[in-house]
Task: inverse folding
C-alpha cells in the first residue's frame, strides 16, 4: 500500500538505526501485519492489541505527528 510506504520508508531511513534493538525488532515484526490493519493504526482508527505493535506504532506516529 503506497500510503504506508510514504510513512514507513522515511521512518526506516531516518529513525530506524537510532532505535534500541528491541524497538528495531518490534518494527520488523510490525511489517508482518496486514496492510489494512497498519493503515487503520496509523490513521488512528483503532489500536493494535499487541503491546509491542502498539509501542512501535506510537513511536512512528510521534515522529511524524509530534504533539
Result:
Amino acid at each position: 500500500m503506497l500510503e504506508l510506504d510514504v510513512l514507513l520508508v522515511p521512518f526506516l531511513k531516518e529513525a530506524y538505526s537510532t532505535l534500541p534493538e528491541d524497538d528495531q525488532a518490534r518494527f520488523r515484526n510490525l511489517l508482518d501485519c496486514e496492510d489494512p490493519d497498519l493503515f487503520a493504526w496509523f490513521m488512528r482508527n483503532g489500536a493494535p492489541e499487541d503491546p509491542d505493535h502498539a509501542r512501535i506504532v506510537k513511536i512512528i506516529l510521534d515522529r511524524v505527528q509530534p504533539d
Remarks:
- The chain is about 65% helix and 0% strand.
- Residues 3 and 62 are 17 Å apart (CA to CA).
- The first helix runs from residue 2 to 14.
- The chain has a mean pLDDT of 94.
